[in-house]
Specification:
Blueprint: H1 4-22, H2 31-41, H3 48-59, H4 64-85, E1 95-96, E2 99-100, H5 102-105, H6 108-128, H7 135-149, H8 154-163, H9 171-195, H10 201-228, H11 231-234, H12 240-243, H13 249-253, H14 255-272, H15 281-292
Antiparallel strand pairs: 1-2
Helix pairs in contact: 1-4, 2-6, 3-4, 3-9, 3-15, 4-6, 4-9, 7-9, 8-9, 9-10, 10-14, 10-15, 14-15
Length: 295
Amino acid sequence: MTDFSAWSQGCQTRIENVLAGHLPPADIAPQRLHEAMRYAALGGGKRVRPLLVFAAGEVTGAGVERLQHVAAAVELIHVYSLVHDDMPAMDDDALRRGKPTVHVQFDEATALLVGDALQSLAFEILSGQPLAVDAGTQLRMAQLLAQAAGSRGMAGGQAIDLASVGKPLDLAELEFMHIHKTGALIRASVLLGAQCGTLNEATEAALDHYAKCIGLAFQVVDDVLDAEAPTATLGKTAGKDAAANKPTYVSLLGAARARELALELRADAHKSLTGLGAPAERLRELADFVVERTF
């Protein structure tokens, strides 16, 4: 087995190429929109969600030919959410992945359309490629991604986040928000990757618990990094949460306890994979990466 760094770099290169192939060329009409879509989706990001797709697929014996398209669809949903979240009506940020946000580089109307078009392209990919053992499974995969992105998932979590600015939340309320805002798409990444192969109920339950732990851990670490890491390291504006008076794990628990919570969630994630053996090693490594990352 190759080491984690080589494996992750290989997956990142693959997903970059697959995304480049699925995105419309910048020289066909409407050129400005297509240029902005490629600007948003290519050449940056940790690609954690695609990595989770590939890693979960290893557990169920899924072929990379299927996984790469699912990974692209999930990443496009994630990128669309970033484009919209950065806009003045939401988080009003000027920097993402180390470069100007889409509405800054282009304009607000183009940024809105980029998000819309990336979301549509994700479902075009998910419905237009042979990704599962049967059509019923593939239909359920599309439904899972739609729910993860919608009002009961990522969009709903963002709505709660916006409504919570300046308000005190307890730990349960904060967790509820992030299960939706961040956790839903991370959970979908794991389950969609697994569904590209042969999946039984016990394995699905184990992967689902793992994904829920990692989704929360990812947000806890994000909150710590937002409070402690410099903008140059993060590739986005540091300290935005505190400046906007947003409730975070750091504001509620303090940085030290937040870091402890991330370690506890990682341990729980590892425990959930106990019965899955060697094929789950990449998922274990990704849990470590999520908690130990510095960007």
